[in-house]
Design goal:
The protein has 461 residues and is of the alpha+beta class. The protein has helices at 10-27, 67-81, 105-109, 135-139, 156-170, 174-186, 224-227, 233-245, 253-259, 268-273, 327-341, 357-360; strands at residues 31-38, 41-49, 62-63, 203-205, 212-214, 230-231, 275-277, 282-286, 289-298, 301-308, 313-319, 364-368, 371-377, 383-387, 395-399, 404-407, 416-421, 427-432, 435-437. The longest helix has 18 residues, at 10-27. The protein is globular, with a radius of gyration of 26 Å. The model is unreliable at 1-5 (pLDDT under 50).
Length: 461
């Protein structure tokens, strides 16, 4: 009932299988299939099923619901990277006449446009897409429920608009663009808009009895970009590796990193849960780990893709039931099991191939007032700056090639760091976004804002 590769320790493989066995049994799922990714490739596949005999493997399709949104976000960011649009553009600039044109592309990607969560009319996931042939049928008479940019409000119609945007700019159907620009380059030949054998059937399990009811499988029509896709653990394992590392045939590592960066204001409950949203990706802090990915559900199916970039471990979990196992918890547990039992080896330390003496001179201890900071040279040719101990503002900085650096994260993201030198060439101080860092606390020889008391340091006497 399970298949696995000899790429993990036996104890780790058993722990993974035990976790999905518990999830399938306690969640009463007709079947559940999972995969773990490490070092950019699938290293374990497992499944549990209520049917005697051969269980589903990494080639059996399940419907993946809203994981589709991450695929759609990839298409939109490809358009941005090609210079065909800007994330700050209002939708109206590229897709006029939608009655939601004031929403920006970034807001749609991050679910912050203020649009309704669902399409009006009957439950769209269990009715034919032909009932909503136009975007106006998806949006309804009042598309907006909240002011744009003020809160994260998940919106399926928002991703329908993004799918229509892709079609408008590319001049082809969303399905065709996805196949040509993402599925084929990444080798995802078992991911499709419609089921292709072998595939699982979708079931509803009665909440109070161990009986099942088949769920309808509808073509979502206009809503396809929000949840249409079918896929396998094998294909989603490849997709997880792409979302962690990028692939220049589809999106660069820098752009997929942007997708994984928080882009939405968190609700109070989200702050408590440690959850937020990026550009087509869910982000969660769980058990001391930063996890990114996406969950999905449609009648008859549940899906989850979870990635810990820091651990270089990802998990995919699919089930064919409308409700039951909490797959986000299962995915997080599979990542934890591997990361804790077999932590990744750090890259070997290697000295820098060369170093600029003027930069090396800046390394070491600096003071912002009485706060002690350390500047270090990094292996990528930049520098890092942060408190010598404890918490506080810290950032990595990218070299600009002119003796200055630009902050990459945290409080100093986008801020300019430069060394200010005296006429004789010696370093007076560091200027970081107007903050003065000196070699001694309130160095009398540096231009400390507000000046330094001429009587100097003293005790109480």
């Amino acid at each position: 009932m399970t298949t696995s590769q000899e790429l993990l320790l036996p104890g780790t493989r058993r722990a993974l299988l035990h976790r999905i066995a518990v999830a399938q049994a306690e969640g009463r799922a007709p079947s559940l299939v999972a995969a773990v990714v490490r070092d950019g490739r699938a290293v374990w596949h497992g499944s549990r099923t209520s049917v005697d005999g051969h269980g589903p493997d990494e080639n059996v399709q399940y419907r993946i619901g809203s994981i589709t949104k991450t695929f759609t976000a990839v298409l939109v960011l490809r358009l941005r990277d090609e210079g065909l649009l800007d994330l700050g553009d209002p939708l109206e600039k590229h897709l006029p006449g939608t009655d939601a044109g004031e929403a920006t592309i970034a807001e749609l990607l991050a679910h912050t446009a203020g649009l309704a969560a669902e399409a009006p009319g009957p439950w769209w996931e269990r009715t034919p897409g032909a009932l909503r042939p136009e975007l106006s049928d998806v949006l309804g008479a009042q598309p907006f429920l909240h002011p744009a940019g003020r809160r994260h409000h998940y919106s399926n119609p928002g991703y329908t608009l993004l799918g229509a945007l892709v079609e408008k700019v590319r001049g082809a159907s969303w399905e065709e663009v996805l196949r040509r620009e993402v599925l084929e380059p990444l080798g995802l030949d078992r991911t499709s808009a419609h089921p292709s054998a072998p595939h699982a059937g979708g079931w509803a399990v009665h909440p109070w009895a161990d009986v099942m009811l088949p769920e309808p499988t509808e073509d979502l029509g206009r809503m396809a970009a929000a949840g249409q896709l079918w896929s396998t653990t094998g294909d989603l394992a490849k997709f997880a590796a792409f979302l962690a590392n990028g692939d220049d045939r589809v999106l660069s590592a820098e752009t997929v990193r942007e997708m994984r960066t928080p882009a939405a204001p968190a609700e109070a409950a989200d702050v408590v849960d440690g959850a937020t949203y990026g550009l087509g990706m869910q982000i969660q802090h769980r058990d001391g780990r930063l996890l990114v990915g996406h969950s999905g559900s449609l009648p008859g199916f549940l899906a989850n893709l979870t990635i810990s970039v820091a651990d270089d471990v990802a998990a995919v979990v699919l089930a064919n039931c409308t409700s039951g196992p909490v797959l986000s918890a299962v995915g997080a547990d599979l990542v934890r099991i591997v990361a804790d039992a077999e932590p990744r080896f750090p890259e070997p330390w290697r000295p820098l191939p060369e170093v600029d003496p003027d930069v090396l001179e800046l390394a070491g201890q600096w003071y912002w007032g009485t706060h002690v900071f350390a500047l270090r040279l990094t292996s990528d040719g930049g520098v890092s700056m942060g408190p010598l101990s404890g918490g506080g503002r810290r950032s990595r900085f990218r070299a600009n090639g002119d003796g200055t650096w630009t902050g990459l994260e945290g409080y100093y993201a986008g801020e300019l760091l430069r060394a200010v030198r005296r006429l004789d060439g010696s370093v007076s101080h560091l200027d970081l976004g107007s903050f003065v860092f000196t070699r001694e606390p309130y160095d009398e020889g540096a231009p400390v804002p507000g000046g330094v008391d001429p009587e100097g340091w003293r005790g109480i006497g």
